[in-house]
Amino acid sequence: MYYSQLIVDQIKYYTLLSSIYIPVLWAIISGVKLLFDKKQFFLFALFVNIAFVYFMTFKRYYEQFDVYSTLFPIQAFAVLASFPLFYLYILNVTSAKDLLLRNVAPHFALPIIWGISLFILMYNSMNSHERFLFISEHVYTESIDILKFKIGYFLYRGGKYVYIFQSAVYLYLIIKLYKENNIKTNEIFSNSEGVNLAWLRYIGLAFIFVFIFNLIMHGLKLNYISTHHYLVIVSYIVFSSFFMLLGLLSIKQKNIYNQIAINYEDKKEEQNGKELNIHLINKYLNDQKPYLNPEYNIYNMCSEFNINRTYISNIINRDYGINFKTLINSHRIDDAKQMIALIHRQKKSIVLNKIAKDVGFNSYATFLRVFKQIEGVSPSEYIDNL
Asked: Using an 8 Å Cβ cutoff, are 217 and 235 in contact?
């Protein structure tokens, strides 16, 4: 019995430590990337924030209340800042322009209010001994006669419920942002790889488990959680795994927009004295075939015609009845069909993988999917019907 309990204690110890070290690892990596890419700021801040939160959790579980009581107001801020930081990272990556203070500040209103409230309460009305008592004893129960401890308890419990509600709200906002980004990228990019944030689907699935265990861990009282080691172990394995997955997937995310994109988002609707129309776009695409470049996007077209992105998007949507991505892919499929017909007449072997690459697709799987979507049959079936 003694040895089994010792093993459980060791597992709990290293599980809690892993929840600190994993965010620290990704904070270091994203911090290095931040030196070259300021869009990494919110990701870096998120991992630093999470590492601090779990550092404080470790101190609490092992009753190092001197440190925990001193930094508790910062902990209250950090916990409530976690989901806003993740949301702002996604928002920043999917925005052509840098986020302004007015975009960022509202998301930190609740964390700041909670942190300042606890700071004023603990450092204005409690001495160091009372802060220690509050964190080590009174935060566990509401049956306290002293008003300042009772207020502190309700702030603490209220913060937990706010955190649970907040996680649901930001999950909704992230899903909404993901869907909006998919619509927007179809108007801008000819290939979706690296810009459609497909990895967020995996994060969303993983987040369901995090949300469930957050409900459990923040809904129960501390004195109950502290005596149920297996609950702590499983919960923090889930949390550590989530942040490992988040680090692995998010750190590889490239910036969707560059300075050229920003320039043509802001540019006025003008086009060197002549009106842009569908015929000019068709002539440009047929003559120059810019779509053979897999990285071709609407901003390249903006540069060609010296006009802003919204104006071109509106022309394509109005006159073609499709978005930019579908327009470009239809030209690629037309070229692919011509190449297939030519090779078939020459009675040579048709290598679809090479054709897909030659006409501008950066993924063979995407070529197969788009070909069938446009032609109604797979490339192999199309060849058989020649």
From this structure: yes
Q: Alpha carbon of 352 to those of 290, 359, 382: distances in Å? A: 21, 11, 12
Name the percent of the chain lying above pLDDT 70: 92
Distance CA(99)–CA(118), nearest Å, equals 29
CA distance 213 to 194: 31
d(CA 340, CA 334): 10
Assess whether pLDDT exceeds 80 at residue 57.
yes
The last residue of one of the domains, among 255, 283, 314, is 255
| Single-letter amino acid, residue 298 | I
Tally of domains within the chain: 2
Which structural domain range is residue 240 located in?
Answer: 2-255
Residue 349's pLDDT is 87
Task: Give this prediction's pTM.
Answer: 0.84
The answer to whether the beta carbons of residues 276 and 311 sit under 8 Å apart is: yes
Q: Are residues 243 and 264 in the same domain?
A: no
Whichever domain contains 50, its CATH number is: 1.20.1070
- 111-170 pLDDT tens trace: 999 999 999 999 999 999 989 888 887 776 666 778 888 888 889 888 988 988 998 899
| 230 shares a domain with 274 | no
Q: Is the same domain home to 249 and 267?
A: no
Give CA torsion, residues 309, 311, 317, 318, to 10 deg.
-170
Among residues 237, 255, 273, the one where a domain terminates is: 255
The DSSP letter of residue 157 is H
What was the pLDDT predicted at 109? 95
CATH number at residue 304: 1.10.10.60
Residues 6+ apart with CB under 8 A from 45: 85
Residue pair 301/312 in contact by the 8 Å Cβ criterion: yes
**323 with 243, same domain?**
no
